[in-house]
Write a structure and sequence with these properties.
By secondary structure, the protein is of the alpha/beta class. Helix content is about 50%, strand content about 10%. It contains 13 helices and six strands.
Length: about 280
């Protein structure tokens, strides 16, 4: 079966859908289903646009323990998951599986690590991988046969390749963890180097080639920048470790077409009548 493998950052989609859609969207029993509906609709948009050979929905921990050990404030600023979302979260794997989509979870790492690992495995097998996420940490996975798949406000699926990563960050994909360590990442609670913003982070990496080399040559920089690199050297190395995605052993998913009939059936059971009717029209 031709086509790319789509790997989905399911936690991101569930959160995004939960806060974007009205709470009035409920199932047949009055239970909230907006996060589930938004997630499925987004994944169907990607399937229609990209005609994948298979789709894998990834789940994982909110924060991998080793990352918290390196920096206790990692993700500490995030609010607890709302109960209405937690209920849908529990129901999501079974719903997504009904569409013929593989579901993978990890108890030790984050969904990002699974996304990265699946993309690398697909690439090494000679295939193309599309990572469906808004998390720019995944830019480090981008290569000739791996793209980040972004959803625009207009509902289009846009591929972010190596050239676009460099246009946005000013560095190659493999330097994204170094860039994040220097600039910081508010979404993960990483402050970065004191007084160093995106432009200075980019310039340091273009000049020195890596975070480690920038630290080693800090005496060449302006006093304020050099002092930040020296005084925070160990902390910046930890930030880079946190930002670097972990490769874990995963099997290459087999070809699996989206099951529109099974999805329509599940949508009716979950009380998503309009979605069910739309899917039933597809199956004829």
């Amino acid at each position: 079966m031709a086509g790319p493998l789509i790997v989905v950052d399911t936690p991101w989609l569930l959160y995004r859908s939960f806060f974007a859609l009205p709470r009035s969207i409920v199932g047949s029993g009055g239970e909230p289903v907006g996060a589930l509906l938004g997630t499925v609709n987004a994944m169907l948009t990607a399937v229609t646009a990209c005609e994948p050979r298979a789709v894998t929905a990834c789940f994982g921990r909110q924060d991998a323990p080793y990352r918290v050990e390196l920096y206790p404030a990692y993700h500490a600023h995030r609010d607890p998951m709302p109960d209405a979302l937690a209920e849908q979260w529990e129901r999501a794997p079974a719903l997504l599986a009904r569409f013929g989509w593989q579901v993978l979870d990890t108890d030790e790492l984050e969904a990002d690590d699974l996304l990265y690992s699946l993309a690398r495995t697909e690439e090494e097998a000679g295939g193309e991988a599309l990572i469906m996420t808004a998390d720019r940490d995944l830019f480090q996975a981008v290569g000739p046969n791996v793209s980040v798949l972004e959803l625009t406000k207009e509902g289009q699926a846009v591929k972010i390749g190596p050239d676009e990563v460099k246009r946005r960050y000013g560095v190659e994909p493999e330097l994204v963890p170094d860039f994040i360590a220097l600039r910081g990442d508010p979404s993960d609670g990483l402050p970065g180097a004191k007084g160093i913003g995106p432009k200075t982070a980019r310039d340091l990496l273009l000049e020195h080639g890596s975070l480690e080399q920038a630290i080693a040559r800090s005496h060449r920089e302006r006093p304020r920048v050099g002092e930040a690199l020296r005084s925070q050297a160990d902390e910046l190395r930890d930030f880079r470790k946190i930002a670097t995605l972990v490769r874990v052993p995963v099997k290459r998913p087999p070809d699996a077409a989206t099951d529109y009939a099974g999805g329509a059936e599940a949508a009716r059971e979950y009380g998503m009548r309009r979605l069910a009717a739309r899917l039933e029209r597809v199956t004829g």
